[in-house]
């Protein structure tokens, strides 16, 4: 994967960047071994509700108001040696800082798998209309035990004619327990150069957004993903370069503005703060 050139040190001016083309194989090692490349078709997955205690989001119960799943996994190419496909579901508690060096408590590990769809060929579809269906065959049996940030993870397993079993990374689909989110739109960052264009957020999932350019490079088209969980926005470490990125934002519930802190791009800048004004 490409690395953002270390010569990029000026953040508030327009800079030019050159980089090597990436011709690496799109398939994961499991997909290559399994002989099939899968993809998630445009799908709906949401477990949205109102937290009963808006102050203690980590522990509050959730009153679910909008629950649905319409997940379809399709074959892109290959699959001649696959005899069976399974979509499996696991439940994972939100990440909890337990105060130890290990960072996260043991309870955050995914639970046991359950098969939710199976067949000798693709596509396969999973359809839910209730939180009970999400919880079915997981270690959670009471919706009152679900918290903001908990995850239902759907993955596809492939069984080959030789008896091997592989997971398709490309078809992993995660539904996070969250509040409703509406951040789509244009935002002007507080750059010293006020003529720079706004950053644009496009909704690509429930609470998940694609921003058209990374903070610091508003004209670059270095797209990044943001995850909104009840007004706390995380910059996901997922973009076209190998440099790690991150940061957190807080959404103003009145204005819709986002205040970012701790924003960083590895080898470029760290712990920066930015204010996004919604246009």
Task: Give me the secondary-structure topology.
Layout: H1 29-34, E1 36-40, E2 44-51, E3 62-78, E4 82-92, E5 114-119, E6 124-128, H2 131-135, E7 151-160, E8 165-178, E9 185-189, E10 199-205, E11 208-211, E12 224-229, E13 232-235, E14 245-251, E15 258-265, E16 269-278
Parallel strand pairs: 2-8
Antiparallel strand pairs: 1-3, 2-3, 3-6, 4-5, 4-7, 7-8, 9-10, 9-16, 10-11, 11-12, 12-13, 13-14, 14-15, 15-16
Structural class: mainly beta
CATH class of the largest domain: Mainly Beta
Q: Please provide the count of β strands.
A: 16
Report the biggest beta sheet as strand number plus sense, adding barrel if it closes: 8 strands, mixed
Q: Helix coverage percent of residues?
A: under 10%
Strand content: over 45%
Number of domains: 2
End-to-end distance? 34 Å
What integer value in Å does the Rg equal?
A: 21 Å
Do you know the CATH topology of the largest domain?
A: Immunoglobulin-like
Report mean pLDDT, rounded to a whole number: 84
Shape category? globular
| CATH architect. name of the largest domain | Sandwich
Low-confidence segments, given as residue ranges, are 5-29, 100-108
The run of helices and strands is HEEEEEEHEEEEEEEEEE
Number of helices: 2
């Amino acid at each position: 994967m490409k690395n953002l050139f270390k010569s990029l040190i000026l953040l508030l001016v327009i800079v030019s960047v050159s980089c090597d083309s990436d011709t690496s194989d799109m398939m994961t090692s499991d997909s290559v071994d399994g002989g099939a490349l899968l993809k998630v078709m445009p799908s709906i997955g949401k477990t949205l509700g109102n937290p009963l205690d808006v102050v203690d989001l980590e522990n509050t119960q959730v009153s679910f108001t909008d629950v649905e799943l319409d997940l379809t996994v399709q074959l892109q190419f290959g699959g001649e040696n696959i005899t069976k496909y399974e979509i499996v579901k696991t439940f994972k508690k939100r990440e909890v800082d337990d105060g130890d060096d290990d960072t996260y408590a043991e309870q955050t590990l995914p639970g046991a798998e359950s098969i939710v769809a199976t067949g000798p060929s693709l596509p396969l579809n999973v359809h839910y209309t209730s939180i009970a269906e999400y919880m079915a065959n997981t270690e959670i049996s009471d919706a009152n035990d679900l918290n903001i940030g908990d995850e239902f993870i759907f993955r596809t397993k492939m069984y080959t004619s030789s008896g091997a079993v592989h997971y398709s990374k490309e078809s992993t689909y995660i539904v996070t327990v969250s509040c409703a989110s509406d951040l789509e739109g244009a935002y002007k960052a507080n750059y010293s150069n006020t003529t720079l264009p706004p950053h644009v957020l496009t909704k690509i999932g429930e609470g998940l957004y694609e921003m058209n350019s990374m903070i610091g490079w508003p004209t670059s088209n270095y797209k990044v993903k943001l995850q909104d969980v009840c007004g706390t926005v995380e910059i996901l470490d997922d973009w076209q370069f190998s440099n790690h990125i991150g940061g957190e934002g807080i959404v103003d519930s009145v204005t819709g503005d986002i205040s970012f802190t701790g924003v960083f791009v590895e080898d470029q800048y760290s712990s920066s703060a930015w204010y996004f004004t919604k246009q």
